[in-house]
Amino acid sequence: MELKIIKLEQGVTIFNYEELKAELEVSLQKYRGYVVNAAEIAIAKTDRAGLNKLLKAVADKRKETKNVILAQFSEVAEPQFKELEKMINDCIVGIDDGIKANEEIEKAEKRENTLKLWQTLDFNILPFEAVFVDQWLNKTYSMAKIKDDMTAFIEKVNNDLKLIEQFGENIDTLKARYLNSKDFDVTRIISEANEEKKVLEALVKESKSKEQPKQVNQPETVEKQLLLRFEVKGTRTQLQQIIDFMKSLGVHAKNL
User: Average pLDDT, stretch 216-240?
Assistant: First the structure.
């Protein structure tokens, strides 16, 4: 099948549109309502590739013609080219949808088989969703490789849980935090626990310092001064000694 430009005139673009359309109606008939079976995916992909090639040829010719005489092309030929492209593309879409539907079925089946494989490993502390990765659904990713990934993951988790047990404090809480994490990064979990421990110790120390009784300075007791009158008899020396003693005590004395 070949698209031929029959005549180019000022303001008019003529090509073998009717001929091509008639040929396409016949050749594309087998692709309408195309049903893709699982056993014929390879054939469907070949058909799709052939249609894509034909679609590209028509589209390229349209662009080439458009560049030659853009004015009249836009009015007459472009809608005709696009109609041809749509005829082809409608068939491609139908086939493509069938291929994708079959691929989704295959992925669903492989996911189910992957789940069953995980259950055989009897590692019940984590659900299947915690270990599953989309890459496993690729056709090139074998079930043997998936099992190796699962086994390595289980070994890592067990080793990480042993490290958490060596931490010595809040083991159950740390294990739960680790198992509920998305990255299963035991280094981060332990590092955060150490930081929390430091903060807690600082709070406890501060709390104890606030609980210690403060020393209260008792106010000095000021004794009330009294007036005492008495008469002393003695020698001058004795009397002077009494006066000096009274002064040493801060007692005010005067002669009457």
Answer: 65
